[in-house]
Amino acid sequence: MKGVPLTEELYKYITDTFIQEDDLLKQIVADAEAKNIPLIQVSPETGKLLGMFIKMIGAKNVLEIGTLTGYSTIWMARVLPPEGKVTTLELTKAHADEALSNYKKAGLDSRINLILGKAIESLDSLSGSSFDMVFIDADKENCVNYFNKVIDMVRPGGLIITDNTLRRGEVIDPNPGPGAMGIIAYNKLVAADSRVESLLVPIDDGITISIVK
After folding, report:
1. Domains in the chain: ranges and CATH
2. I need a surface site. Which of 51, 129, 199, 208 has the fewest CB within 10 A?
3. Stated pTM of the model
4. Could you report the per-residue pLDDT of 127-140, keeping only the tens digit for each?
5. DSSP per position, 49-76
6. Residue 196, by phi and psi: left (phi above 0), alpha (psi -120 to 50) or beta?
C-alpha cells in the first residue's frame, strides 16, 4: 500500500493543525442535525481546500451543484474577491431556506445566488454563463450529466471538482449501488476526456479534480 494509512489520530493531527472551523460553521452542522437534515456536507478539510483552489486560480465566478444548508458555499464565498459570486443549485426547498438563512448569518448573502430546482434544468438556464470553478456535490447518478452540462461553461485553466468520488470504497465493490455506478462512470469519463486533466485525491471520501484545458 502506498502512502500512510489515515488513522483517527493522524486525521485529528491534520484538522487540529490546519483547519479553522469557526463557531458559525460548527453551528450550521449542529442546526442541520437538530432539524434532521442529512449530515452530508463536505468535511472541514474539503471546505478549506475548495477555498484554496479559488485563491490559487483567482476565481471570481463559482458554480456549486448541490447546496444542502450552505456549509461548502460559505467556505467558498468567504475567500472570493468583493466582486465574486457563487451560484449554487439546490433541489429541496427546506434545505435552500436553511442555506439562505445561513448566508445571512455569515454576511455573505450578497455574494451568493441560490437557484431552487432540478440541477439539470437549472444548468440549462445557465447555458452561456462562464465560471472559473465548478463544484459538483449532488446526486451521484447524474455526475456524468452534470459534467457534460458544465464543461463548456468553464474557462481554460478553470476547475471542475467533484466530491465523494471514492464513494466510501464502493467504487471497487463488485456489486456497486446506483450512486457508486454513477461515480465510477464519472471517474472513467474525466480520466479519459481530452478536454481536461484529472486526478482523484483521497481526501475525506475522495474528490476528483479536473483542470479544463
Report:
1. 8-212 (3.40.50.150)
2. 199
3. 0.95
4. 999 999 999 999 99
5. HHHHHHHHHT--EEEEE--TTSHHHHHH
6. beta
